[in-house]
Design a protein that fits this description.
The chain is an alpha/beta fold. It has helices at about 25-35, 70, 75-90, 115-130, 135-140, 145-155, 170-180, 200-210, 245-250, 280-295, 310-325, 340, 350-365, and strands at about 10-15, 40, 55, 105-110, 160, 190-195, 240-245, 260-270, 305, 335, 365, 390, 395-400, 405-415.
């Protein structure tokens, strides 16, 4: 597609269900204040687990968004996705009706899907036999159901898809939705990611892979991206959703515009099932290609919302990737990891981090990386340590990387 045929795409609504707030306003206030969302796991008895901490969503009431029968037939990840989508539509003041339904689509990613339902039904199967399994098990479990249910509950009849690229899924969903509008396949898209994988089996599996922090005696300081003493990521849960619209469509209805999405790129390390390639060449290429797609230079970047997982391998590798992609300018920009407050939402992380990125642009405020006490010598950028910062944000990037070597970068800029 030639550049002159590309439609401009803007962000007009946001929704967020997170460990530090269940609305976009609560989430944003929590980020700026450096609120910790990580504590001891309450969803199940984790006393026998090596990792006993997580970023759980607190006080979430699905019945604010769904009736009781509908909520009961959804896994928690789908409840989060539908709730955040409804928030985002309300924020955008976008009403879906019979006139526009076929021009509004949904792409919502999830890395794991309904693992809670799968674990519960396996227990029923083993203890009570196959005839006692729920007829709703499969539609509650499959990862695409957040996207499908969001369409059902909003009436969006346009393109509908689910990205399943591990921890890059939410960002892939936003990027793919961007392309749908750019190419003229939809006028508006509901997009992002959701996850609810704080379950016994999921926590045990990540711990067995030595991916999780075991700082069980100090959950508030367990997630410490770029810190010398980091020892693994902390799982989180929730959902982050954006409403993307074709610019002329947004202007025609006088919609508020948070930011313009201008670039998207994805690459693969083709190296290892869980570890990033040393030096971060794949991630660097994603950043460079996103900038090229946006027609931006490294010197125009103000802020990067980093993947920043708090694992030994990721943080230094991402730092290397940023410096490779941006050169000397990498040392002149702000880089922060909001996972330090929310934990790692897996497939939902790209969603809530894109919300944080566009709010940083809209408000000229940069959220911090909390829990930095002793900076890793291999992590030598400006990570906005421990306190938020008022700063003009013209262009911002959001990075997401996933098991399997998936690398995704989204580029946003102020709408002008």
């Amino acid at each position: 597609m030639t550049d002159y045929n590309r439609k401009r795409v803007v962000v007009t609504g946001v929704g967020a269900i997170t460990p530090i707030g269940n609305t976009p306003d609560e989430y944003w206030e929590g980020l700026l204040s450096g609120r910790n969302g990580i504590d001891y796991i309450t969803a199940f008895d984790a006393s026998s687990h090596d990792c006993r901490i997580a970023g759980e969503v607190k006080n979430f009431d699905p019945h604010q968004y769904l009736d009781r029968k509908e909520a009961k037939r959804m896994d928690r990840f789908s409840q989060f996705g539908v709730a955040a989508a409804k928030q985002a539509l309300a924020d955008a003041n976008l009403v879906i009706n019979e006139l526009n339904a076929e021009q509004v689509g949904v792409i919502i990613g999830s890395g794991v899907g309904g693992i809670k339902v799968m674990e519960d039904q396996q227990t029923i199967y083993l203890n009570r036999g196959p005839d006692r399994c729920s007829p709703f098990m499969i539609p509650m479990m499959i990862a695409n159901m957040a996207a499908g249910l969001t369409a059902i509950h909003t009436g969006a009849k346009g393109p509908n898809n689910c990205t399943v690229t591990a921890c890059a899924a939410g960002s892939n969903a936003i990027g793919d939705a961007f392309r749908m509008i750019q190419g003229g396949y939809a006028q508006a898209m509901i997009c992002g990611g959701c996850e609810a994988a704080i379950t016994p089996l999921s926590v045990a599996g990540f711990a067995a892979a030595r991916a999780l922090s075991t700082r069980n005696d100090d959950p508030a300081h367990a997630c410490r991206p770029f810190d010398r003493d980091r020892d693994g990521f902390v799982m989180g849960e929730g959902a982050g959703i954006l409403i993307l619209e074709e610019l002329e469509h947004a202007l025609s209805r006088k919609a508020r515009i948070y930011a313009e999405i201008v670039g998207y790129a994805m690459t693969c390390d083709a190296y290892h099932i869980t570890s990033p390639v040393p030096g971060g060449a794949g991630a660097a290429r994603a950043i460079q290609l996103a900038l090229k797609d946006a027609g931006l230079t490294p010197e125009q970047v103000s802020y990067i919302n980093a993947h920043g997982t708090s694992t030994p391998a990721n943080d230094s590798t991402e730092t290397a990737a940023i410096t490779t992609a941006l050169g000397d300018h990498a040392y002149k920009i702000a880089v922060s990891s909001t996972k330090s407050m929310t934990g790692h939402l897996l497939g939902g992380s790209g969603g809530i981090e894109a919300v944080a990125t566009v709010l940083a642009i809209a408000n000229d405020q940069i959220p911090p990386t909390i829990n930095i006490e002793n900076l890793d010598p291999d992590c030598d950028l400006d990570y906005v340590p421990n306190s938020s910062r008022a700063q003009k944000v013209e262009v911002a990037l959001s990075n997401s990387f996933g098991f399997g070597g998936h690398n995704v970068t989204l580029a946003f800029r102020k709408y002008i």
